[in-house]
Design a protein that fits this description.
17 strands; 14 helices; about 40% helix; homodimer; about 425 residues; 5-stranded mixed beta sheet; alpha/beta; globular
Chain lengths: ~425, ~425
């Protein structure tokens, strides 16, 4: 099935906001086996929106439209759709009731929020009792999905509503798709490509590479009508792929580095704490994004000032003077210090120079030391990252999580 | 002058690469006073490219096309343009000579690099002696600018070639654009709309609303040819807008909440530290994203486990038992505890239930207490957020930064 994506909003055509939602949708659809032929971004002009919509209806199998569903005057998607498809806007009573309940009063046709309830005839809202807008409309046998422009809401509905509905729409077809995404960190795309080429996989198996900084996601896809053999061939190909990419594959599908680390900690019944300097809490934040992380993450210290490295973590002022705050010695004392103070089984420490200033010839901007410590051993790695402050912080936290993963994989289970 | 942007490439329509060049071009053009009505992204299909180009020629004053100018088989822009505009491709002799010089040999029509020299009839290359592709073509009195898809090359040519050429094209007109973005937190878009409607602004002033979760960005724009009056009218409108939105406006243009808080701390010569539970380090991470934050941010504690709230922050076990970890009492002791341990002027504490589990009737998921403490006063706010874990953490950190901003604005300067 071939689709088209239309994003609406002056904030996009003026370049004020970078359009990230269309790319996200294209990616999700591609991963699910659909093809996108074109994407448009259109300002808040009803005629242009209508024209783009009518053109798409004629030439693709489904359409995604994002943006312009809110309550303000420049939200004109519903009006444009109504005009272009000749479908009058009608009030959705469930949405209207929710808004009035929210406003805690009776009919208030002048309240701009009520605009949210007026949808083109035939619109089927995804979730009329929630405050997130969005609906499906089938016009000339073409399903059209209208989503909010707010990236989080759009992404949520894309996964939760659009993909299942599209799959249901397509259900008549006997073609089955099997797909697995391998999440890879620490191998360049060209190296991954070389290793997979050497595999000489079954011609029907399709491999895709998606750099998702700083990872590369490798997608393995098999489309087949012959279901008996397909499962075996698919699993065999996955196995061979994992072999050549070795332990650079940290997870599959929905895995994140922090959820994999969390699983390894839970499974081995160990607790973690962190001492961060240049990452300023980013690693701890990523660990605690995972629901249930309180089972294994105790907490830690953000020791940005040198005084706190001494007072909260026990790094001696002599060490700081002799070796500097960015040194293997400081990283080691930060790791052992935070572990003993938090009473955790394993600790991680990060100290480095995120820039833009603070670099020297010996330790340029991007120099980072990461320590990992257990009761048996304390290991320190020196790393050199490039890019701006934000990129160095992101790479340091990501690499820290990957080092933790590798450390945990080597551990014997606690008995 | 109104323009349209067309980006070409399967890597964009598959979502493999995020299209950053169209947004960049739109922003540069907008800043220079042009209006972009629509942007399209199209896969490597000559018919679709030709169709988009012909449609644009009919309705706008200029067109930017990016991508597909390289030497590989999937670079098909020149071929598509040649077909759609009925302009045969002809070899540009300067480019051909450069390529042959580069290859250090005579004619080599089979070398794929020679493809770079064949351009649609009428093409006027920006820089035929450099290896960067790109040209201008005027068709039916419409200037069309063809640029490479590689972001660095495209951005370079946009500034160096397209903007001067467009300005020369437009030389007759003297329209000037003034714009300011107001960053607003804590007011719903509908409420902002209502307040601004009440202002009854000058008809030439255009207001736009852009929800950038969890903020709303309000853009105020004035286009005018009368430059003497325009500056005054623009500043007067900005002032009236700030009045009605009150202190919900936390900054303008490139300001971020963390950079505004940083500026207020620097200006008042005060230091900050943080004690976080449910946000797990997110607030500290945001503060330390700002370059130079080490001047005012000392660090802090991520006290995820209750034991650490006691051992690292001095919250008494009795308080935790009597009131719970998520309580105003605990938030208060976390704030005062972290302040005294870090020796900072001001501290912030966050404790709450990010979910998905852990809620109760009295304290449902999303309940968060935020404390701010100085040597004079400790203030605690109770907040209730909705959404998933990720959203609750993001809202708690964002609201924490906003409460810090408001606290700092009320302070007397240190003498």
């Amino acid at each position: 099935m071939i689709g088209e994506i239309i994003a609406i909003g002056d904030e996009l055509t003026s370049g004020r906001i970078l359009n990230t939602t269309s790319g996200y949708a294209a990616r999700k659809l591609f991963d699910a086996g659909y093809t996108i032929h074109a994407m448009s971004t259109i300002g808040d002009h009803p005629e242009l929106i209508g024209e783009a919509l009518l053109r798409a209806i004629g030439r693709v199998d489904f359409i995604i439209v994002t943006g312009g569903l809110g309550s303000t005057d420049d939200d004109i998607t519903n009006e444009a759709v109504s005009q272009a498809l000749e479908r009058p806007t009608l009030p959705n009573l469930t949405i209207l009731a929710r808004i009035r309940e929210h406003l805690k009063r009776g009919p208030s046709p002048n309240n701009p929020l009520e605009k949210l309830a007026w949808l083109p005839d035939g619109a089927d809202p995804f979730d009329p009792v929630s405050r997130i807008a969005g609906y499906q409309l089938v016009h000339q046998d073409t399903p059209i999905f209208f989503l909010p422009g707010v990236p989080e809401e759009m992404k949520d509905l894309m996964t939760r509503a659009v993909l299942p509905k599209l799959a249901a729409w397509q259900a008549g077809s006997a073609l089955q798709t099997r797909q697995r995404i391998f999440k890879v960190f620490g191998l360049a795309e060209s190296e991954i490509n070389l290793r997979i080429k050497g595999l000489d996989l079954d011609g029907e198996i399709k491999i895709g590479y998606y750099p998702v900084y700083p990872d590369v996601h490798v997608s393995l896809l098999l489309r087949s009508t012959d279901s008996s053999q397909a499962a075996e061939r698919f699993e065999a190909a996955c196995l061979r792929l994992e072999e050549v990419l070795e332990d650079h594959v940290y997870g599959i599908d929905a895995d994140e580095l922090e959820s994999v680390v969390g699983r390894l900690l839970s499974e081995s019944n160990r607790t973690l704490c962190a001492a961060e300097s240049c990452t300023g809490g980013l690693l701890a934040h990523r660990v605690t994004k995972v629901a249930g992380s309180s089972d294994y993450f105790l907490g830690g210290v953000v020791a940005y000032a040198n005084e706190l490295k001494s007072s909260l973590l026990g790094v001696s002022p002599e060490t700081l003077t002799a070796h500097g705050a960015v040194s293997p010695e400081t990283a080691s004392l930060m790791a052992t210090g935070v572990r003993s103070r938090c009473g955790a089984d394993i600790s991680i420490s990060i100290t480095g120079i995120a820039g833009p200033s603070g670099g020297s010839i010996d330790k340029p901007v991007g120099t980072v030391f990461i320590g990992i410590s257990s009761s048996h051993i304390t290991e320190i790695e020196r790393l050199q990252f490039s890019g701006d402050r934000h990129r160095i912080q992101a790479m340091a936290a990501h690499t820290g999580l990957d080092l933790l993963r590798r450390f945990l994989l080597r551990l014997q289970p606690l008995t």
